[in-house]
Amino acid sequence: MNFGRCSTQQICLLSWRENWTPDQVQLFNQTIVDEYVTSADQSDLLDGLENFHISGDSNTMFSCQLRLFRSWYKAWSPQDKQTFLRTLAAMDPPFLQFLQDRNIDLQL
After folding, report:
1. pLDDT tens digits, residue range 27-76?
2. Residue 95: which of 12, 8, 10, 14 has the closest Cα?
3. How many CB atoms lie within 10 A of CB 14?
4. What span, in angstroms and rounded, lies between the C-alpha atoms of 47 and 95?
5. Phi/psi of residue 23, each to 5°?
6. Computed from CA positions of residues 104, 61, 53, 51, in that sequence, does the dihedral angle turn out positive or negative?
7. Is-above-0.70 flag for pTM?
8. CA–CA distance, 47 with 66 (Å, rounded to integer)
């Protein structure tokens, strides 16, 4: 990874992910996959995340982190997005299986 803005953002996301609950990780994973598979317009990603009903103090930080992810993700190049998916898949075998179950080939 080159150490630029995108790399720093991805490192932050990976760090945050380590502290999320399994449900939060699953929600984040599905959000990434939905965007990757559909190559949806960025407004679709925003709309999808804004429709989540997150409440309670334990989710306040997670909600903020998802908002940051949204804003960062739309600025990443396709290569940056692919790198992030590959990094997650290498770090987290269940995430790799999650991708494979959805027929996403990262060409690892």
Report:
1. 999 888 877 776 544 445 445 545 445 455 556 889 889 888 878 888 89
2. 14
3. 14
4. 24
5. -65, -40
6. negative
7. yes
8. 12
